[in-house]
Amino acid sequence: MKNQTALLIIDMQKGSFTSATPRFDTHGVIKRINELASIFRGRQLPVFFIQHDGTGTGEFEKGTPEWENLDELFIEASDYHIDKYANDVFYRSDLQMELQTQGVSELVVMGCATDFCVESTVQSALTKDYEVLVVSDGHTTGNRPHLKAESLIEHYNWVWQNMIPTRGSIRVKSFEQIKNDMLN
Fold it and tell me: Is the pTM of this model over 0.85?
């Protein structure tokens, strides 16, 4: 195994970013995703774009505009595309096989929604013994009935920093910290 690092970009799809579903710091998160993805590509590290495929549910139907990734994302032909069918990207998807093929042992996680798909994927990756690094300002969500988006993001960053890992580990760092670590 090569102990390679991969970037997971979860559900940055048009259907999750509408006027009816505003997200916290959308433009900042997109900017940080684009910049970190560029750094990964420059180091020949895999970049995975994860898209929820709700085929048959009437939402996020594959090939529809709401299923598409945001136009502001810079996506390269060399990037990997993984369809997911539940909050947890590992559930019945090709991700685990692709990560094993690439020799990936560490995952850097970004995307939407903090309290659903990002959280489920982080938890699942831990149970699969990955080293997990969450970009603290690289995930987003919307306001919920009892909690504002910014508080949810802050809460989950705290939860992840205080989890007991399995054989892998979990860390939470800002985009700037990760960028500096990768460039120095």
Answer: yes
